[in-house]
Amino acid sequence: MAVNKKVAKKKYAKKKNGRPTVYSTTVAKKIFLLLAEGVSLKKICSDPAMPSRSTVFKWLAEIDGFSDKYEVAKLEGLEMHADEILEIADNASNDWMDINDPDNPGFKLNGEHIQRSRLRIDSRKWVLSKLVPKKYGDKVDINHGGQEGNPIRGLIDNVAGVIKPK
Question: What pTM does this model have?
Answer without folding.
Answer: 0.64
